Amino acid sequence: MPIGAYDPWIHAHCNPEQALAMANQAGAEFVLPVHHRTFKLSNEPYNEPIERLLLAAGSAEDRIPIREIGQEFRITSR
Q1: Which of 60, 69, 4, 71 is nearest to 30 (CA)?
Q2: How far apart are alpha carbons 4 and 38 in whole angstroms?
Q3: pTM for this one?
């Protein structure tokens, strides 16, 4: 889910809370945040999108398995 570049482009980009709501509505088990922290796209502070996403997720923050650029994520069979 895209979580960055919402300030000042909120009309074209969702904020972290909206991205989480969309993932919830889609029934997503995991939320993979994109569109943030690679380079300056907009006015929000560098760490704000991921921090807001984790805060919005609350106790379900384990649904967000990737938090750093270059981090890997693997789904194992259950």
Answers
A1: 60
A2: 10
A3: 0.89
Q: What is the 3-state secondary structure (H, E, C) of 1-24?
A: CECCCCCCCCCCCCCHHHHHHHHH
Which residues, 6+ apart, have CB-to-CB distance to 26 below 8 Å? Answer: none
Residue-wise pLDDT tens digits, 7-20: 998 898 999 999 99
Residues 15/48, Cβ–Cβ less than 8 Å? no
Tell which residue, 35, 25, 30, has the closest CA to residue 64: 30
pLDDT at 59: 93
Which two tokens mark 56? 């919005």
State percent of the chain over pLDDT 90.
Answer: 64
Amino acid at 9: W
